[in-house]
Amino acid sequence: MKKKIEERIRKLVSDLQERQDKEGSWHFCFENSVLTDAYMIILLCSLETGDEELVGRLVGRLWKLQTREGTWKLFEDEEEGNLSSTVEACFALTYSGLVEEGDKRLIKAKQFIEKKGGFHKAHSMTKFMLAIHGQYEWKHLLPVPIELLLLPKSSPLSFWDFSSYGRGHIAPLMLLKDRGYSFKSPRTPDIQHLSRAPEEIGYSSREIALLKKINEGLQSLPDIPAHLHQQAQQFALHYMLQRIESDGTYLSYFTTTFYMIYALLSLGYEKSDPIIVKAVDGVKKMACETKKGTHIQNSPSTVWDTALISHSLQEAGVDVGGGTVRESVDFIMKKQQFKYGDWAVESGVTPGGWGFSISNSFHPDVDDTTAALRAVTYSAAKKPFVREAWERGTEWVLAMQNRDGGWPAFEKNKTKDILTSFPLDGAEAAAIDPSTPDLTGRTLEFLGGSAGLTQEHPGVEKAVRWLNRMQNEDGSWYGRWGVCYIYGTWSAITGMRAAGVPSTDRSLQRAKSWLEDIQQRDGGWGESCYSDQKKTYIPLPFSTVSQTAWALEALIHLEDKPTPAIDLGITALLGMLDGAGDALSCTYPTGIGLPGQFYVHYHSYQSLWPLLTLSLYQKKYVEGRTS
């Protein structure tokens, strides 16, 4: 097995080196749900941009992703199909003008939608898209006055209490709802017959309590209603315009840019306005090629992938001074952010973080920042200017720690739980930005493993205590940004070990037992996206490459010598990399954007995580090194 490990490491290194581009970065596809492909078709067709060739390619991919039952899914083991995805694909295909009304594939999709009760049962984002195009009544959406945007930060609740991701979507959506905007043309399809909208919409007691708090805040605003209304519209407009990146996209996301474009149209902007033209051009550049055709990424993962790959290559022994690593570090250094963004309101620290996408210049996040810092750590020891950037980034990470001891994704202390009742599907995950075990564990792994901090540091000690409190009864931890309990448990174990928690610690031993208990018969690990929705571990009938690599790395950090579970797992991982596993082992989505709605297959993950794990196995068990 030692020889096989060495050969596989060499191959993974060679393959990754060959894929590096001239800038020093890596461009792997960030493959998400059909939402972005469908919405791109709708956007291009409604604006009549003349991009028929691109529309045709996107239509072709949608057909290839349709199931035999006529549905579209978020992940392969999803039962029957996903209503929202099927509605989105169905509307887009009809809008494209490339599909006959009597196409049997389209008929099957519509039958599924009707069987599920119509599209009024779809996700809020889907219904917003349909309302924009005259297919759904605005009165059934978001019963919150736009004046919410004006509530001061000192109010019990304000727009600024939402997560940055939440604010990015809420601003255009509230503007669209307020305007009651409908964009219809002779080309717009009519699928209203597929909906049976309810006479009344019922709200939970928590939603009612939230709406009451918002209304109480609005009563305190010192101005006449007409002026407030106009000010709120202007606020929404300026909020979006001030957060447009150099490529024309709004916050570097496809979905936010999509809704911004229609919000601008609702205010009287022309389709030919330079802001809209550049925004459309920006999202067109988010295209990537998959085996089934052209796909529109919601947020290209170039910075994330480059940082992770550079680090994995260095851990595999690639020379830090050589071209591959040097060029990747140069690229990463250029992407450090020096603009003050919304995050600065709470953190009070100078800029120094990194973002996810190549165009992201003022919307950094903790996970990308620690990934970038890991990748430049060795270079920082030799180059003063890299060291200065590294110290600045580390200071930024430490300043982002939440009050409870954990780390958020984008902004600290956005944790008002009542906002999870905001009347939008997915608000429980997107409205706030709480500490999560995966982000906290990965941050600890950097602080302990790369920055050399121990539990003597108050921030590290507080984070370890927080992780101990968050451990589930079965020994696992929940992962918010990866699927799901395997991801969270791997993050927590590696973070706590890097912080100096001994492998004999009771929490870590419980986590080890849990990982060993869920090991698949083939020796690997595989977890369903359903875990994320049902908030309990749901196994897959097969193992996946990335989840197997995560579980193995966690176990290796806990064991001085290889155990049967580890060796069996390594054998399974090597087999999957040789193509011996299930066809979905390398393609099943193991990343999460929005729980229950948005899952990601990172094309880079089938290379970088196995490389990191195999390199760790070789260093620790074959070469006898601990670092």
Description:
- With 627 residues, the protein is mainly alpha-helical.
- It has a domain at 33-296: Glycosyltransferase.
- Helix content is 51%, strand content 3%.
- The protein has 25 helices and five strands.
- The chain has helices at residues 2-19, 35-47, 52-65, 83-96, 104-115, 124-132, 164-179, 205-219, 225-241, 254-266, 274-284, 302-315, 323-334, 344-347, 366-380, 384-399, 427-430, 437-449, 458-470, 485-498, 506-517, 530-534, 545-556, 564-577, 605-622, and strands spanning 30-31, 287-290, 293-296, 591-594, 598-602.
- Strand 2 and strand 3 form a beta hairpin.
- It is globular, with a radius of gyration of 24 Å.
- The model has no long low-confidence stretch (mean pLDDT 94).
Shape: globular
> What is the first-to-last residue Cα distance?
22 Å
- Write out the strand line-up for the largest beta sheet, numbering strands in chain order: 1-5-4
CATH uppermost class of the domain at 33-296:
Mainly Alpha
Give the structural class: mainly alpha
Residue runs with pLDDT of under 50 for 5 or more positions: none
CATH architecture field of the domain at 33-296: Alpha/alpha barrel
User: How many helices in DSSP terms?
Assistant: 25
User: What fraction strand?
Assistant: under 5%
Count of strand segments: 5
- Rg on CA atoms, Å: 24 Å
Helix and strand sequence = HEHHHHHHHHHHEEHHHHHHHHHHHHHEEH
Mean residue pLDDT: 94
CATH third-level topology of the domain at 33-296: Glycosyltransferase
Helix content: 40-55%
Report the major sheet. 3 strands, antiparallel
